[in-house]
């Protein structure tokens, strides 16, 4: 067997899955005439049935029948009926090992396949080594191994042997990667890499520790320090192009492993691995620092503009009394002048009498002050911050290698002019400085009577640079998030190959434009259908008038008659400490085995220490406070355990284990079948050291914070979470959770609230095979779109916003499909593409075409929404589950006042992952005990109405002790197969 298992239990079951449904059995195993002739030559029912089963297994999934092979009962029953023999004959087969082996040899000869031998093992290792150069995912390696053996017509050995071959191949691939990178490093390069592990002379941290530090605050000082880090990385003068010799996935994995280790651990690596790891860390860290510098600039510009807005608002508030006094004075002046005109009196004398010339002069001065540009446009007030920009912008512009698309060439030229002024010390802008990038609102400030104002010119250019980098109109060499847009996508030749062979991983596998024509025809049909229903006032709960649409609110999701059962069930839960709950859930699932050592790949031998570190993340206590609250545990122990066992990938694997267990639990089927889900963001304030890393979103107030965006299944399982900035729109991250979760859930339909949808997302969700159903606030303001212009759909006319630009969709159809295929295949993350598409200017062809396609899909959805009250009810119920889960998360994440206080983004991610894992464990524990509770009630009383069970929820926590000392007494642990006694059932 392999030293460590490459497959989870669920993956192993997936690999060895046999067809069980009648249609699948017919498709895979229907014997031919030749098969039947060979089967009939066996003597006895047992031998005929056994021979036929072996024949089936060698065909699919290609495995030889061994003594411990578990054959699906459905296959045995189906084949027994085809052969007209008793199913009991199967138990008689194989009593003689020689018979089974003899049949196996005969079947292999009949099928033209050979038995697996030692030479085949070596060939398999060599083949998988090439695959392992691209990925270290166990499932992909094993699938590749099986495909290779089947293509070579070799019978598959036991799954353990395949895993062992894949483990050896992975080790060989790792050594090749180390050697490939090491060959590019000279003696000088290696010395400089070793220098990264030494302490800095002026600090207590190592050189690499300082280089990997995140910026503290969005200000000029932090920016210049981060620019120094980028300059230091570049000064290593490593052969950066060598990174392209190793697959991106493996290089990134190598860098992540190194980042999780201390400098002392890295120094203990054998030289080949040490230098390869340090080189990978240098490559990735340099890209990270580049991105962080750009992000810092973004945040500084945003902070300066917000400060100017606040000053303007304060000035406006402070001037209210002055304005009121001026209005009263001018009112008296106006009355006096009109009276003087009617009476033929001297107007100047009237002014003197009414208010006096001195008061009028003072009033005019106040009026000029209140109408100066700074109080009319807050951008004028940013002039007070020009010195802040000049503290870092010369170095900022000098360190970035900027490039631009044709649409931003003028802006790049302006940046080069500013660079030239910075390098020469000149103060005046040249007369031919580029100006076409200047937007109308900046023009009154940039263009003056004496020429271009340099301060506002620079600020305008730097603001536009921020926007252009976001959208992709400009990009930076060495960046990860701000590369050329085309670099993110599938290579054109790969996309064309997929399309030509009909293997696009999308709803339209061949990319033919007739698919688009079919969608447009469907839209036309649905518009007519809903318009006809609306004209007859037959849309249930919907009233459409000339003023818009009104939808009758849904009734309460949980009926009143279900409340007694809900109260009764929750009162029967055993009271339990959170530590005991985690231990019990681990007894059921073994989720702690997924927290493997970074070096050895082995699970932790001290589960209590591991669970203590996980709990410190989940309840937001932190390692220091946890060591004080947990007897016999020191901070050093927790810190070492966290560094060795807790990573993003181990958290994801453990979460998938909990979600999969919940998914197959019989009681969870009362809530859903695991095919629908919802997602929502939950804000947590960033406090203490983390305050400078948090972002501000006016929606949540003026305090900085972080958002944890969580996907929840219809069975209440939180199957994915991601820590994001509060300023990012929720819709940016919807696809990430659906595409990149590691559980067995097969989500088909997804719900969000209003912040979770955009037209771009509607288009991509459909192309990737998901039904998207957001709950849109103020649906009357959301417009429908028709395939063509022209009259028609009179009743729906108040809701129609125009026609679709089908020509644009058709013109960019291939670009849309290439983008969607790139996301589906993991070539680029969905959230990164969503950010760029959202920041693209209106004239960008791809963004416009995708928006039009999204409008088509959104219109189809809205028509369903108007017609189908069941859909509205289903979406509301799904979102309510996510909101209820957020309430649980808020209760669990109670320490530190519920604030995220870790400065490191990595530690902040661990907080989010720990919280999600802990809530998933609570959901599973509650589900198991809900099942036991209902079983008890059914025994003691009349049977519970099955229709009411779907209204029970596994999100309660009143019975769970989340506070106090966190200890793990063995006396409280439940033996395998045993459960805690329920409390006495209460009468409803």
Strand content: 5-15%
* Rg, alpha carbons: 34 Å
- Give the biggest beta sheet: 5 strands, mixed
Task: Name the helicity range.
Answer: 55-70%
In angstroms, what separates the terminal alpha carbons?
Answer: 55 Å
Helical element count? 42
Query: Which stretches of 5+ consecutive residues score pLDDT under 50?
Result: none
Strands of the biggest beta sheet: in what spatial order?
Answer: 10-9-8-11-12
- The structural class is alpha/beta
Mean pLDDT: 87
> So what's the overall shape?
globular
Q: How many E strands?
A: 15
What does this structure look like?
One of its GO terms (biological process) is DNA transposition. InterPro entries: DUF4158, Tn3-like_transpos, Tn3_Tnp_DDE_dom. This is TnpA family transposase. Pfam families: DDE_Tnp_Tn3 (PF01526), DUF4158 (PF13700). Residues 675-697 are annotated as: Disordered. Among the domains are: 9-180, no CATH class; 400-483, no CATH class. The mean pLDDT is 87. It has 42 helices and 15 strands. It has a five-stranded mixed sheet, with helices on both faces. The two termini are 55 Å apart. By secondary structure, the chain is α/β, with parallel strands linked by helices. The protein is globular. Helix 8 crosses helix 9 (138-151), helix 16 (271-318) packs across helix 25 and helix 17 runs antiparallel to helix 18.
Keyword list:
two-stranded antiparallel ribbon; 15 strands; 55% helix; globular
In short:
By secondary structure, this protein is of the alpha/beta class.
Fold topology:
Elements: H1 9-15, H2 22-29, H3 33-40, H4 45-59, H5 73-83, H6 89-92, H7 97-111, H8 118-132, H9 138-151, H10 159-183, H11 187-195, H12 207-211, H13 220-235, H14 248-259, H15 263-267, H16 271-318, H17 320-343, H18 347-354, H19 357-370, H20 373-376, H21 386-390, H22 393-399, E1 402-404, H23 409-424, H24 443-446, E2 447-448, E3 451-452, H25 454-471, E4 474-476, H26 485-488, H27 492-500, H28 514-535, E5 542-545, E6 548-551, H29 563-571, E7 576-577, H30 578-589, H31 607-618, H32 622-629, H33 635-645, H34 648-664, E8 676-685, E9 705-713, E10 718-725, H35 734-740, E11 749-751, H36 759-767, E12 771-772, E13 784-786, E14 800-803, H37 806-811, H38 813-824, H39 830-839, H40 845-867, H41 869-892, H42 905-940, E15 960-961
Parallel strand pairs: 7-15, 8-11, 11-12, 13-14
Antiparallel strand pairs: 1-4, 2-3, 5-6, 8-9, 9-10
Helix pairs in contact: 4-5, 4-7, 8-9, 8-10, 10-16, 13-16, 14-16, 16-25, 17-18, 17-19, 23-25, 25-39, 28-40, 30-42, 31-32, 31-33, 31-42, 34-42, 36-40, 41-42
């Amino acid at each position: 067997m392999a030293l460590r298992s490459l497959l989870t239990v669920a993956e192993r079951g997936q690999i060895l899955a046999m067809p069980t449904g009648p249609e699948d059995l017919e498709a895979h195993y229907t014997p031919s005439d030749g098969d039947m002739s060979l089967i009939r030559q066996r003597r006895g029912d047992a031998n005929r049935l056994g021979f036929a089963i072996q024949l089936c297994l060698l065909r699919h999934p290609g495995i030889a029948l061994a003594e411990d092979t578990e054959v699906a009962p459905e296959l045995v029953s189906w084949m027994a009926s085809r052969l007209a023999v008793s199913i009991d004959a199967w138990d008689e087969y194989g009593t003689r090992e020689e018979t089974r082996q003899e049949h196996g040899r005969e079947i292999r000869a009949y099928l033209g396949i050979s038995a697996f031998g030692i030479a085949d093992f070596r060939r398999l290792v060599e083949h998988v080594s090439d695959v392992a150069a691209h990925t270290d995912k166990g499932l992909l390696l094993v699938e590749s191994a099986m495909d290779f053996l089947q293509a070579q017509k070799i019978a598959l050995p036991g799954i353990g042997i395949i895993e062992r071959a894949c483990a050896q191949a992975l080790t060989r691939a790792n050594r090749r990667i180390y050697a490939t990178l090491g060959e590019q490093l000279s003696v000088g390069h290696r010395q400089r890499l070793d220098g990264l592990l030494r302490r800095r002379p002026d600090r207590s941290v190592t050189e690499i520790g300082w280089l990997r530090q995140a910026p503290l605050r969005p200000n000029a000082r932090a920016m210049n320090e981060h620019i120094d880090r980028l300059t230091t990385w570049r000064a290593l003068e490593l052969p950066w192009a060598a990174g392209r010799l190793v697959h991106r996935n493996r290089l990134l994995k190598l860098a992540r492993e190194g980042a999780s280790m201390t400098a002392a651990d890295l120094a203990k690596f054998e030289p080949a691995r040490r230098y390869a790891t340090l080189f990978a860390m240098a490559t990735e860290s340099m890209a990270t620092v580049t991105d962080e510098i750009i992000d810092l600039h973004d945040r500084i510009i945003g902070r300066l503009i917000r400060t100017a807005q606040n000053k303007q608002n304060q000035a406006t508030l402070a001037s209210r009394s002055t304005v009121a006094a001026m209005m009263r004075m001018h009112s008296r002046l106006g009355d006096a002048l009109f009276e003087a005109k009617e009476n033929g009196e001297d107007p100047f004398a009237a002014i003197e009498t009414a208010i006096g010339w001195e008061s009028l002069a003072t009033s005019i001065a106040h009026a000029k002050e209140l109408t100066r540009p700074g109080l009319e446009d807050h951008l004028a007030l940013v002039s007070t911050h020009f010195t802040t920009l000049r503290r870092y912008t010369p170095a900022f512009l000098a360190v970035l290698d900027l490039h631009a698309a044709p649409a931003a060439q003028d802006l790049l030229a302006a940046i080069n002019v500013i660079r030239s002024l910075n390098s020469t010390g000149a103060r005046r802008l040249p007369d031919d400085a580029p100006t076409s990038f200047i937007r109308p609102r900046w023009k009154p400030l940039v263009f003056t009577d004496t020429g271009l104002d340099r301060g506002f010119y620079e600020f305008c250019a730097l603001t536009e640079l921020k926007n252009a980098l976001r959208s992709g109109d400009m990009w930076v060499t060495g960046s990860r998030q701000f590369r050329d847009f085309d670099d993110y996508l599938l290579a054109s030749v790969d996309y064309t190959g997929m399309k030509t062979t009909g293997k696009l991983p999308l709803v339209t596998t061949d990319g033919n434009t007739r698919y688009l024509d079919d969608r447009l025809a469907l839209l036309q049909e649905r518009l007519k259908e809903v318009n006809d229903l609306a004209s007859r006032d037959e849309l249930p709960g919907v009233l459409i008038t000339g003023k818009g649409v009104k939808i009758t609110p849904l009734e309460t999701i949980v009926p009143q008659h279900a409340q007694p059962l809900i109260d009764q069930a929750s009162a029967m839960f055993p009271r339990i400490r959170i530590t005991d709950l985690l231990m019990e859930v681990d007894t059921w699932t073994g989720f702690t085995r997924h927290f493997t050592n970074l070096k050895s790949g082995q699970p932790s031998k001290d589960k209590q220490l591991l669970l203590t570190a996980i709990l410190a993340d989940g309840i937001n206590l932190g390692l220091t406070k946890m060591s004080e609250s947990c007897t016999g545990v020191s901070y050093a122990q927790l810190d070492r355990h966290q560094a060795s066992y807790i990573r993003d990938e181990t958290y994801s694997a453990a979460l998938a284990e909990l979600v999969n267990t919940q998914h197959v639990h019989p009681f969870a089927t009362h809530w859903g079948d695991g095919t629908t889900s919802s997602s929502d963001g939950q804000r947590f304030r960033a406090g203490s050291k983390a305050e400078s890393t948090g972002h501000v979103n006016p929606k949540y107030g003026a305090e900085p914070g972080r958002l944890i965006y969580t996907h929840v299944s219809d069975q209440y399982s939180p199957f994915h979470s991601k820590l994001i900035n509060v300023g990012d729109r929720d819709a940016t991250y919807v696809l990430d959770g659906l595409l990149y979760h590691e559980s067995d859930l097969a989500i088909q339909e997804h719900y969000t609230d209003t912040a979770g949808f955009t037209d771009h997302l509607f288009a991509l969700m459909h192309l990737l095979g998901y039904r998207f159903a957001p709950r849109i606030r103020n649906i009357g303001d959301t417009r429908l779109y028709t395939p063509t212009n022209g009259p028609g759909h009179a009743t729906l006319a108040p809701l129609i916003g125009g026609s679709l630009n089908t020509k644009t969709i058709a013109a960019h159809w291939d670009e849309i499909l290439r983008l969607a295929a790139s996301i589906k295949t993991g070539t680029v993350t969905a959230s990164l593409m969503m950010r760029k598409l959202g920041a693209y200017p209106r004239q960008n062809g791809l963004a416009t075409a995708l928006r039009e396609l999204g409008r088509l899909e959104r219109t189809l959805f809205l028509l369903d929404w108007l017609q189908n009250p069941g859909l509205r009810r289903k979406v509301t119920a799904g979102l309510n589950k996510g909101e209820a889960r957020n309430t649980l998360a808020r209760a669990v994440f109670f320490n530190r006042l519920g604030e995220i206080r870790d400065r490191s983004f990595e530690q902040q991610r661990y907080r989010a992952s720990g919280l999600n894992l802990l809530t998933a464990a609570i959901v599973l524990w509650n589900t198991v005990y809900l099942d036991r509770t209902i079983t008890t009630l059914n025994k003691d009383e009349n049977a519970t109405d099955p229709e009411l069970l779907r209204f029970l929820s596994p999100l309660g926590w009143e019975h769970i002790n989340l506070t106090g000392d966190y200890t793990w007494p063995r006396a409280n642990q439940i033996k395998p197969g045993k459960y805690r006694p329920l409390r006495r059932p209460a009468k409803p």
